[in-house]
Structures are given as C-alpha cells and as structure tokens.
C-alpha cells in the first residue's frame, strides 16, 4: 500500500447504531474505493483520546472522545489514487448542515459531533491513523 493511495475511515457510533453501515459501505464501493482492511470494534475512552490527540485542548475534545467510545464503530482502510482528497469530497463538510447534497455526512450525519464518518485529512494522518487500527497482517 503506497502512501497517497489510501485513507482511513471510521463509521461513528450513531451511524452504526442506526443501521447505516451497509448503505455507507455501498457508497464507498460505488465511489471506486477498495476496502483493504476493515474491523468492527469499540474503543476504550483512553484509546479514543489517543486517536484524537491532535484535538486535545479544544472545547469539543472531551465530548468527542466520550462519544467515539460510546458504542461500536467500523474502521477501514480505503484504497484509491488520491484517496485522502477523494474521500474528503465524498464525506462532505464536518457539519452535516453545511455538507453538500449526496455526501455521506449530509445523508447520514445528525450533528457536527455525530457526523457519521471520519476521514483522514492528510497522507501523513492516513498513515498514522491506519497504523493505529491495523497491523500489516490485517491489510489485504
Ligand atoms: P473533520 O476532519 O471534518 O472530521 O473535522 P475535525 O478534524 O476538525 O474534527 C474532528 C471531529 O471532531 C469532527 O468530525 C467532529 O465529530 C468533531 N468536531 C469538530 N468540530 C466540532 C465542534 O465545533 N463541536 C463539536 N461538538 N464537535 C466537533
């Protein structure tokens, strides 16, 4: 897996609880991404805080970490040339209210915090975040 060709997504607890895993994965496949790793898990609060360490100190940090540890999530590595930017376009703006029609956050998000999915915002973060969730033995 070459840097620049993959990104890391999380389907967040609210979207999982509401049965949106299937519809979200179908749109990811439909947009031409290959799923090269995937798991269903629940983060501990400590793991959630570690994943979101770049946001430590921001007003929404504690709530976000608690929310992301509140139920099961789906983590996946998505492969495609230019994956980071293409996936950010597919998911839309952070706040579902501002997201374009047809984007994952517009379709499946409830609020700025519970915005259905995470997508890496740079190739460096895609690498860091993929390593956080997956060993080399779990990538295909
Ligand atoms: P993203 O890259 O579009 O996911 O946005 P950020 O990296 O800025 O923020 C990470 C996550 O924190 C977002 O996906 C939201 O779930 C949450 N978040 C960001 N900004 C806010 C905010 O102003 N309020 C709340 N409650 N959550 C926020």
Would you mind describing this structure in some detail?
39% of the residues lie in helices and 17% in strands. The protein contains seven helices and four strands; from the N terminus they run βααβααβααβα. The chain has a four-stranded antiparallel β-sheet. α3 packs across α4. It starts with 5 loop residues before the first strand and ends in a 7-residue tail after the last helix. The mean pLDDT is 97. Bound molecules: guanosine-5'-diphosphate. Residues 60, 63-64, 94, 112-113, 115, 118, 121 line the site of guanosine-5'-diphosphate. Guanosine-5'-diphosphate binds next to α4.
Task: Give a topology summary.
Blueprint (H helix, E strand, L loop, with lengths): L5 E6 L1 H5 L3 H10 L3 E8 L3 H7 L9 H8 L4 E7 L3 H9 L12 H5 L8 E3 L3 H11 L7
Antiparallel strand pairs: 1-3, 1-4, 2-3
Helix pairs in contact: 3-4
Guanosine-5'-diphosphate binds next to helix 4.
What key phrases describe this protein's structure?
binds guanosine-5'-diphosphate, alpha+beta, 140 residues, four-stranded antiparallel beta sheet, 17% strand, 39% helix
- Helix fraction, binned, reads 25-40%
- Low-confidence stretches are none
Number of strands: 4
**Ligands (ions, cofactors included):** guanosine-5'-diphosphate
Q: For the report, how would you describe the main beta sheet?
A: 4 strands, antiparallel
The whole-number mean of residue pLDDT values reads 97
Which structural category fits the helices and strands? alpha+beta
Computed over alpha carbons, the radius of gyration is 14 Å
Query: Which shape, going by the Cα principal axes?
Result: globular
Total count of helical runs of at least 4 residues = 7
Strand order of the largest sheet: 2-3-1-4
Estimate the strand proportion.
Answer: 15-25%
